[in-house]
């Protein structure tokens, strides 16, 4: 049996193809480090689990995937869904929670394998665009809500609803950490400003490194 990756070997002989693939791989590797850690945090798991989820699926998809253009790895929507499903069942970050997350990953993988064998993927094209937009917007709201505590420097409980998170942040407004809030603002600003140079340096990498440096400088300067 021939691996799907062997079907594309002739394309690597084209001028510049190998160089483009290497640069794309290096850029993806650099960007996925902070993203993987962030997505693991969103899911309520230890940070290293995000790196595992970024490494192993990429190797499997590169060898057995049906498309060489599909991006494989952790995603914010999946991380938030994991948190929403498991938070009512166990304390976030506890050994039981991690065990449930691993069991969920195996169950989802098994179901995806069955759906792939049944060729159900072709029906995805029938999903209305409005459903995709609504799903994406909902994921964006959940991401913002999950990061309110981190951005404000408040120890808010994980797994709360959006409204409960906002109310908890408002109730603890007097305890907001100015350094965390300023660093969060600088990180977002750097991500926006660095977009024009993302062709050479990933904008998210600039934002993560710049935000970390800014927080270190601000925290050391403040009493």
Protein model, in words:
The mean pLDDT is 80. The protein contains nine helices and no strands. The chain has three domains: 126 residues, no CATH class; 48 residues, no CATH class; 47 residues, no CATH class. 15% of the residues are buried. Helix 8 runs antiparallel to helix 9. Helices cover 65% and strands 0% of the residues. The protein is mostly helical and 223 residues long. The chain is globular and about 60 Å long.
Features:
223 residues, mainly alpha, 9 helices, 65% helix, globular
How is the topology of this model organized?
Elements: H1 17-42, H2 47-64, H3 76-86, H4 95-117, H5 129-146, H6 148-152, H7 162-171, H8 178-193, H9 203-221
Condensed summary:
The protein has 223 residues and is an all-alpha fold. The chain has helices spanning 17-42, 47-64, 76-86, 95-117, 129-146, 148-152, 162-171, 178-193, 203-221. It folds into three domains: 1-126, no CATH class; 127-174, no CATH class; 177-223, no CATH class.
Which sequence of SSEs, written as H and E, runs from N to C?
Answer: HHHHHHHHH
Please outline the major beta sheet.
none
Radius of gyration: 20 Å
Global morphology: globular
